[in-house]
Amino acid sequence: MSLTEIAFYFLSFLAIFSALAVILSKNPVYSVLYLIVTFFSIAGHYFLMNAQFLAAVHIIVYAGAIMVLFLYVIMMLNLNEEQEEKTKNWVKIAAVVSACSIMLILVSLISKSTYNMGKAPMAGDAGLVQNLGKVLYKDYLLPFELASVLFLAAMVGAVYLSKKETSKS
Amino acid sequence: MDQIIIYKIILCAIVFVVTLGAAAYMTWGERKLASWLQDRVGPDRAGPFGLLQPIADGLKMLFKEEMIPTHSNKWLFILGPSFFMLTACMTGAVIPWGAGFTIDGTFFPMQIADINIGLLYMLGVVSIGVYGIMIGGWSSNNKFALLGALRASSQMISYEVAMGLALIALVMLTGTLNLGEIVAQQDADYAYIVYQPLGFLIFLICAFAETNRAPFDLPESESELVGGFHTEYSSMKLGFFLFAEYINMFISSAVMASLYFGGYNFPFQHELGLEGNLLSAIQTAVFLGKILIFIFVFMWVRWTLPRFRYDQLMNLGWKVLLPLAIFNIFITGLVMYFTGKL
Predict the structure, then answer these.
(1) Domain containing residue B166
(2) Measured between alpha carbons, how far is residue B162 from residues A81, A138, B311, B320 in Å?
(3) Distance between CA B280 and CA B219 in Å, rounded?
(4) I need a surface site. Which of A91, B21, B30, B277 has the fewest CB within 10 A?
(5) Do B127 and A128 touch (CB under 8 A)?
(6) What pLDDT, in 10s, does the model give residues A19-76?
(7) What's the pLDDT tens digit per position in B187-207?
(8) Quick check: B314 contacting A, CB < 8 Å?
(9) Cβ of B154 under 8 Å from any chain A Cβ?
(10) Inter-chain residue contact B120 with A56, CB threshold 8 Å
(11) What does the angle CA B144 – CA B145 – CA B149 come to, to the nearest 5 degrees?
């Protein structure tokens, strides 16, 4: 096994293990910490595919900003195991049924697809910053700008909502 | 190829030891500087000029009793300071400490990892640095520690935004995210402080906030929060938290020196008539000198300015620095367009 293959299997194991730990651990703070580990292993996968920019941004945005806010809120609320919300039985059944059907679709898709794992890791320079920038700002300029306008609108909306809360109280 | 790998491992060890040693003597320097500014003697018992004080402090930390509070989370309690220390040491990998040496025709660069996305790597490490404080503060199961951790996380997230935007203006000029190339460009051209004075100022203020140094040391403000996020910590785990702050200072001084002040380059370096390894050694010494100047500024500010109030801190971050950083990007773009650099 080459070094990249070992890295691939290690990262995959880590990603699946920590993703399972996210849903299996009782303490919400543990879940968030395991989710951060998951993000890191996925960023490692991006590095293996030579998508450096995606990997770095994945860590900066997801692990560095979004998950910090998640952890922030959970620590503020200080949720404990005893305070775990009781869910109704029919909600649990519905969740199991929908998850199983998604699983079925995924399995049928993966079994039909012809993907070659590990054929060319660390190859291709499409993920380098310069190439990605050229593609985003030349070929996909309009969708890119539209997405940023959407983000701006979401930001303004969030600010508006928080302002409304404070003026009421 | 193997030679290079062995060399890189040795370089890693050297950078690690130098960082730790510098951080240790920064604690001594800080106390000496404080005593100088306050017109007193400062530590002078251990060795000449108190020079053995850091060693005495380190030994004291190591031999103190380990305390883990009863309702705390043991694993996370240990993980907190360890992670904080790890992230503090990680940025040193992308900083070019010198131009590199040539021995027997083989070139040995003075940079551990010359990666294309050096700046992004740096921002990523800075952004995950907050977890050490958050995990440590939460797992102590103490109100003051939790409050300190929450303050630290919101402060670091807020100032990261302005820091990233200040760097974007710099990246527009350099056209690269590679720290080695950014430093090399400042050899041919002026240091980037000439083109980015506002960007540097924003970056400097954000660096103070990211390292939790005064006047932004609210996470551990002793008059309100006992000790902030490290209230419950004792012995070497406390030592790690305190020590990592000095490592962060050292590394951010190195980053500022290399991004805005030419890194290892110094004026008229090619007119000296020196070549190769000798010039390279002088350059590394000059770089360390620049780092020392920034460390002095860090300490000077700490013993000069009083602490901010929390709302003042947030206002400064979001309402002053963020618009200024965006304005800086706009001006940089405009100037680049009219001077035909774009």
Answers:
(1) 2-338
(2) 38, 27, 17, 9
(3) 41
(4) A91
(5) no
(6) 999 888 877 888 888 998 999 999 888 888 878 888 888 888 888 888 888 888 877 7
(7) 877 778 888 888 889 999 988
(8) no
(9) yes
(10) yes
(11) 115
Q: In this complex, how many residue pairs, one in chain A and one in chain B, have their CB atoms less than 8 Å apart?
A: 64
Mean of pLDDT values over A96-119: 82
| Contact between B177 and B268 (Cβ < 8 Å) | no
| pLDDT at residue B27 is higher than 60 | yes
The pLDDT mean for chain B works out to: 84
Counting residues of chain B whose pLDDT is more than 70, the rounded percentage is: 98
CB B233 within 8 A of CB B140: yes
Does the pTM of the predicted model rise above 0.90? no
Of A52, A69, A76, the CB nearest to B117: A52
Instruction: Classify strands B106-108 and B101-103 as parallel, antiparallel or unpaired.
Output: antiparallel
The maximal CA–CA distance of chain A, rounded, in angstroms, is 63
Is residue A117 over pLDDT 80?
no
ipTM of the complex: 0.79
| Burial classification of residue B193, based on how many CB atoms lie within 10 Å of its CB (0-12 exposed, 13-18 middle, 19 or more buried) | middle
